[in-house]
Amino acid sequence: MQQRTVIITNRLGLHARATAKLVKLANTFASDILLARAEARHKTVEAKSIFGVLLLAATKGTEIEIICEGTDEAAALEAICQLIESKFGEE
Amino acid sequence: MRGIGRKFPEERLEGIGVCQGVAIGNAFLVDDPRGRVVRFFLPKQQLDAEINRFREALHLAQQQVREAIERLRAALGSDHAYILEAHLLMLQDPHLQGQIEKFILENQANAEWAVRDVTGHLLEVYAQIEDDYLRERGSDVVDVSHRLIKILSGTETRGLNELAEEAIIVADDLMPSVTADLDPRKVLGFVTNAGGWASHTSIIARSVNIPAVVGVRGVTSRVRSGETIIIDGTTGTVILNPSPETLIFYTEQRSRQQQQEQHDIEERELPAITFDNQEVKLRANIELIEEIEVFQRFNAEGVGLYRSEFLYAQAESGLPTEEEQFEAYKFLAEMSGEAGAVVRTFDLGGDKLHLEGFKPERNPALGLRAIRLSLQVEYVFRTQVRAILRAAVHGNLKILLPFVSNLDEVRAAKQIIADVERELRAEKVAHAEDVEIGVMIEVPAAVLMAEVLAREADFFSLGTNDLIQSMLAVDRGNENVNSLFDPLHPAVLRAIKQVADAGRKLEIPVNVCGEMASNPAQVILLLGLGLRDLSMTPTAIPTIRRLVRSIDMANAEKLALHVLTLTTPNEVHRYVQTHLSELGSQFLTTAHFG
What are φ and ψ of residue A25, in 5° steps? Predict the structure, then answer.
């Protein structure tokens, strides 16, 4: 299992376009990928489910914990962090 | 009627009356497809088949969305389809599918009910999201569930086009796309849970002169289709289970109202000329092509403002085609006679144009809309201009550019229009050239630059509703500040004067097309400030005609001249109120102050 905490920095947060990108990316990996708000670690949602990610309601500045577990966990974690850190290619 | 032999007491609900008049009739509830889903209890041996039925529907829904994404990508490029991409991801979400199937099995329920229940729970969770922007995404869940339910039940939403008999429409809120279907002859009145004075339902109700009460909370859950209800659009009252006495009272009131309407029709041929022989043009504001009939009833001098937005709301899918628009403008040109019609190019934001990829804006009123959007999505604007220029062969059409805030926008739009002309010429398509191009004055910057704009514009149209809001920085839909929305504010009157003066100096016509043009007291001031060309909701024309025929222009000018020296809105109100009676008009009671 690998995990890391990142901060959402794009202006609109995890809105529909960003969420769609994230969910699509998560679905390209075999690992289980869970997300949670850093202040509520027990409430995880699956990154492969758009409903789950939208319900995180992550706005700009929200700290998100990413947990990957599976055969390609390292690659998955890296790719997702990179997407978030690149502000979803939006700005 | 509810249960035979059971007598329910009369009940009165209060809302906001947005179009005057009394209507008595049967209620027709416009429903939401989610509300129509019925729950079935299925025998165990049918559950597998039900799961399969659901999976087929899911598959078809995904297919529909995928095709829509392809169409959109082809038209606008890959970046514009993200909302639909989100819908597709929702339809592909294994959890959604899993939960719905589990619900079917555990509750022996039909698939429609399962979809409704599961998405309903999701919506409750969404409703608690604090961020406005993210919470909005709940509407995507609603869209996705509607799509599934429609496929499963094989029915379309029951719309107003199914209305068989005259009825009072009761709805949560009427969307422009729904109202676009209505047949004004069958609608006696409107009642909605939501909405305010400036909502679309209200604007439509006023333009077709149908009594309407909006903002009646919970009315849809208290009225059933077929029940007799009364609405009074003057007081904003809705009466359920009316007693016989109430029915008699309102029936009498309605017949008085009908007599007045008859009287108006008899007077419609009289010219709009003041005692001192000054002529005033009374034109109609039109939103639906079908309203042309209403406007002829009042003998308007052409159409001063045709709001083309409804063509976009009515379009079956996406944008109205050039041919659809051409047909509408051609009809308008033919019906509006010599005086002709002013077509305002679309005053919409990206969301209303169904352009995927336009992010919802935090403040759309000051956002990418109207001329700004026209210049950005030029192909949409060009299609509209092509249709107008072609239709102008069949009558006198003018083009009006909305929400102009600087000269560059006017120049850019004119350049596009000239380019479309060249294109039509090259294609040898019949079209009119030198169509007049007007500028809408509804932004303070345009008022201050009126003299400059007047050099490039063939005419001005003063949109007082937006101008007052932006001039006074007041959102009239916000009840905390809407009392500050005041057409008689000295700043507003000075702005109007400045525009009227600029028009006179540079010899271009100035028309007023906002609500001020339909308010008798305010019309006197407009006339006094030098305006002679008013465009209003057609039903206001009889009153304004009578008003014009009952005053001296010289007195109106004197009044306006003095009012311009006053310094506060209150002073203006007091002065106008005490001096209007001197003008000797029977219409100028205090009731006319809006």
Answer: -65, -45
| B535 in the same domain as B397 | yes
**pTM assigned to the model:** 0.60
Domain check: are B479 and B552 in the same one?
Answer: yes
Residue B594: partners with Cβ closer than 8 Å, 6 or more residues away? B487, B515, B519, B521, B522
Structure-token pair, residue A89: 């290619």
Task: Report CA Rg, chain B.
Answer: 26
Chain A positions touching B93 (Cβ under 8 A) are 49-51
Nearest to B90 among A24, A48, A51 (CB): A51
- Closest of B274, B473, B445, B458 to residue B363, by C-alpha: B473
How far apart CA B214 and CA B201 sit, in angstroms, is 8
- Residues β-bridged to residue B111: none
Would you say B443 and B479 are in contact if contact means Cβ atoms under 8 Å apart? no
In this predicted complex, what is the ipTM?
A: 0.88
Q: Per-residue pLDDT tens for B343-367? A: 999 998 877 776 767 777 888 889 9
The pLDDT tens digits of the residues spanning B461-503 come to 999 999 999 999 998 877 788 889 999 999 999 999 999 999 9
Q: Where are the alpha helices (DSSP H) in chain A?
A: 16-26, 50-55, 73-85
CB contact at 8 A, B539 and B206: yes
Compare all CA atoms of chain A with the CA of B90 and give the residue at the minimum distance: A50
Which residues, in sequence order, are CB contacts of B476 under 8 Å at separation 6+?
B197, B198, B465, B468, B469, B482, B485
Which CATH architecture is the domain A2-89 placed in?
2-Layer Sandwich (3.30)
Give Cα B181 distance to the centre of its chain: 13
Give the count of Cβ contacts less than 8 A between chain A and B.
57
